[in-house]
Design goal:
3 helices, 39% helix, 2 strands, Rossmann fold, alpha+beta, 66 residues, two-stranded parallel sheet
Amino acid sequence: MGKPAEAILRLSEEIVAGLIVGNQGIGSRFSRMRHFLMGSVSESVVRYARCSVMVARKDLYDRPTA
């Protein structure tokens, strides 16, 4: 319950996480302005986490292999 970024950060503190791994999700599909107005879970987690954070670009997996 609550805001996703806050819940992720709270849990990472509780379990003393060494690394948080996630992806950009649907926020990356919107324009920069809309992305700015909507906020970003990944951006908040990266900004406020006390441990390392790895964010994968989801669109890399959607591309056909050459």
